[in-house]
Amino acid sequence: MKKKKKVAEKGRSLFERCDAFLERHDRIWFWILFGIMVIVSIQLYDPRISLGGDDSAYIVSACELLDEGKFPNYQGPLYPMLLSLIYLVFGMSLPAFKFFSLLSMAACLFFTFRAFRRRIPATLLFITLLFVVFNSHILYFASQTWNEAFYLLMQSLLLWVFFRFFMEKDAPALSSMAVERHCWLAATLLAVIMTRSIGYAMVVAVIGYFAVYRQWQNMARMLLCFVLFFGIYQLVKYLVWGDTGIQASGQASGLLNKDFYKPEYGREDFAGFLTRFWGNSRQYFSHAFVISGIYSGYNAEGLFMPAKAVYVVAVYLVGLAGIWFSYRRNKYLFFAGTAAGVFVVTSFLILQVSWSQYRLIVPAYPFMVLLLFAATYYLLSLPRLRSFQFLFFVPVVICLSGILDDTSKAIRQMDKVENEYSDLTPDWLHYAQASAWAAKHLPEDALVACRKPSISAIYGKGRKFYGLYRVTSGRFDNFYEQWKADSAAYFVIHTDQDFSDRMYQDMLGYCEARIMLHDNHFLVMRDSSRVKQLLSRWQDFPVISSPKELLPFIAQAEHRTAIYYPDSLLSPLREKNVTHILTANLRQNPKIKNGNIINTVERVASFIQEKYPTLFYPVKQFGEPDDEPAILYQIDWKQTVAP
Q1: Neighbours of 7 (CB within 10 A)
Q2: Tens of pLDDT along 190-201?
Q3: Considering only CA atoms, which of 512, 509, 515, 481 is closest in space to residue 496?
Q4: Cβ distance 51 to 455 under 8 Å?
């Protein structure tokens, strides 16, 4: 018997022997990996709030849900709703919120194993798990309050439900659960969508699977149940919170713009979407290479480097090969690959290339690993290539070596972090200190406008801040038509032509608006005796007194035109009873101190000061002038008359 077993073992391929070895004690291997993940996550624990802003926004949404009854509809509402329960029990406890992320990541690993166990080759399953449990880039979210960990949990739960009720051999025979299983699927799909709007991609993946395998009855029942569940959700939301909006409808409009923050640039066209898709492919595949431990991601100057075109094309070709092989060999892998494909294509079409946040590719990363390695696995399983199966493990070893190296560095870095202020660059340190000081020392009815209100709220222990996210512009066309109708109404000064600081200071208080025609900037002043007296000081300075004189600049600007009115920028601050404004020097590139900052608040303040130069006066400064300071200003509303 032993000889027969040995002969049988010799007749097996390397993959078959690996699969058999792993399956023999797969539960033990899983729990070992589960324990490793928990230990590594604890070692990577980060007491700080992330500086991205969206993660702290979930906490703020949770607080507003309980304190103000405000429904968190802008992002996914399910995650903030669960965080609100933690807030109810523990208050503004960052460790409690972070512990929930760890639980979500652990549960995700469990359901992923349960979903794929004995349904795909064990070698592929455990390689994917290995790429997660040691990975600092993935486990980072186990101690943060982004919704990545929770979305991964909901996604893995959906896989388990779908595989169990719709792919098992006995699934069609579950006549007693004909309705229940479709309800379970619809409920989990809704939960995924309520966690994150990209969850609609999973609906497309499910529909695509039913269509490919011609399961029209399943598709119809699923859609019917999903529409019913979605309708109930919308009805409850309306009855309880009075909210009639569709999740992410506000974001959807901005995602179709050429620039999300500058709608005046117009809508993206077909060629623009193709350019966006290719740019995002290079950006996010580069992020995937970093997560996989095979690419550092940054050059010597600290700039992020997109993946080369040849690598992007290679990933797409191998991915397509993986989908083809899995369609013919394993329907579970086929669904996972389809879900990854829909997720990637949808994300790359709607995301702005400038955002480039690696967290946005994380939900698809496990599926991408499965799909890419499945292509190689099944290719080397062909009879003529079986002797080369050892080559399959070469990239596995290379990637795992890089992942382990990255994780060991991350653990050493976390050993140096003691509290929420540790290891912050000066720009963020001063911003955090200013937020904490404002929350502690300003009156309770004070409201501070700033660029990152959710982060300020965390450092302010729950104190509410007002967010300034964009510089709102008016329609230049409307101004130009108005000026043509009354050509003697305005004087326009081209500030880029020998415009001295002294001249600018003299004009403060007279400015009605600022015009931007691509790279050309202009100040708009009303025709008045005071303005004429002011302009008489510079008789040789060119003054544009007719709208026709702007035509050459308009033609040069094409569609990149904008006009900013101080009173329009000031109006929302007045409506919200904002009493203070916090300026900072938050770097555009966190790794580089070069003077390029996120200047939204500073631009709003400067445009307002062109008409109301004494409106803001400093209260407290954190940091020296040459060390990226944050300055808290009070607004003296007596200096202005309500528009």
Answers
A1: 9
A2: 999 999 988 899
A3: 515
A4: yes
